[in-house]
Amino acid sequence: MSTSAAGGITKWHSKDGQFHRQVSSFRSFVEARPDAPFPAEAGRYHLYVSYACPWAHRTLIVRKLKGLESLISVSVVHYLLGPNGWEFASPDEVPGATLDDVNGAKYIREVYFKAEPEYSARFTVPVLWDKKKNTIVSNESSEIIRMLNTAFDEIIEPEYRGINFYPDELKEQIDDINSWIYDTVNNGVYKSGFATAQSAYEQNCRALFESLERIEGILASNEFLLGSRLTEADLRLFTTIVRFDPVYHGHFKCNIKQIATDYPNILRWTREIYQLPGIKETVNMEHIKKHYYMSHTQINPTQVVPLNNGPDLDNPVVKPTARPY
Fold first, then answer.
1. In whole angstroms, what is the distance from residue 153 CA to residue 255 CA?
2. Which is deepest, 224, 225, 245, 268, by most CB within 10 Å?
3. Do residues 55 and 291 touch, judged by C-beta distance below 8 A?
């Protein structure tokens, strides 16, 4: 999720009323090789995230499931996206948020300018920061989660080594399903919600629900998207689905159906992932709801936040058929 370098931070649509997501600017990689430009080292890297942002949420989940919390530190921004973009706040001011104890920045934009003084694009989260080189490694969530997936395997605790959410034998299938889910679901909710033309809204909203029907069918026969194994594809989709009923259904007008009442297989799958050890603590519904309903004043000028938190994901308990990863 992003903010612009030159004002108008909530004006992301083009003249045709369509929402167009920015391509990430920093695309380097942390690698296991000690001679790599960005080698995997304990304590060297820092994540900047928002609990509200589904793209940043992916990185928190993989960091948790791969046992990287002691190796990669994290800062969490304020849920409110203000005129100057993402801001840091103390936990006393905003429970769940943190100050930036790495660069001492007040806003995430300052981190970008430290890495690139002439930077002129949007200031997005997540950001993976190199404390040694004092620069941004990457601000592309899909690539950050792949770094976290394997690059640190030689230095993490033995119980986490070999956990692989992008295994060689499933890469082609993962890439294929990621492609259409990203376009129509992950980004589809934004293309629906930020559309400023009726035709753009209807086109993207209908495509979104066609894909949800497709996913419902897949999960009617599969425990996870690609069978009995939890993969990157599931984690990327989960962060959108967990926000769907409490935010996207109303705020983004994605209201043809709801997860809680109309998609029993997606709901079962969501509960199963949410109930995995450590996942629940990466879901901060207060930050999620307050961000969307209070930041997007062009959609919700009153900033009133609805009460609904979506379906109960703690109950009933869904037990995996085996360790899913």
1. 42
2. 225
3. no
Report the predicted TM-score, pTM, of the whole model to 2 decimal places. 0.93
323 Cβ neighbours under 8 A, 6+ residues apart = none
For the chain, report the end-to-end CA distance as a whole number of angstroms: 28
What's the mean per-residue pLDDT of the chain?
94
Beta-carbon count within 10 A of 80 CB: 17
| Set 53, 215, 225, 266: catalytic member | 53
Q: 10 Å Cβ neighbour count for 301? A: 8
Residue range 18-65, pLDDT digits in tens = 766 566 689 999 999 999 999 999 999 999 999 999 999 999 999 999
Tokens of 276: 């995995």
pLDDT of residue 3: 54
Beta strand residue intervals within the chain, DSSP E: 45-49, 72-76, 127-130, 135-138
Interval 1-22: pLDDT, tens: 555 444 454 555 556 677 665 6
* Residue partners of 198: CB distance under 8 A and separation at least 6: 17
pLDDT attached to residue 4: 46
254 is catalytic: no
Contact residues for 44 (Cβ-Cβ < 8 A; gap 6+): 130, 131, 132
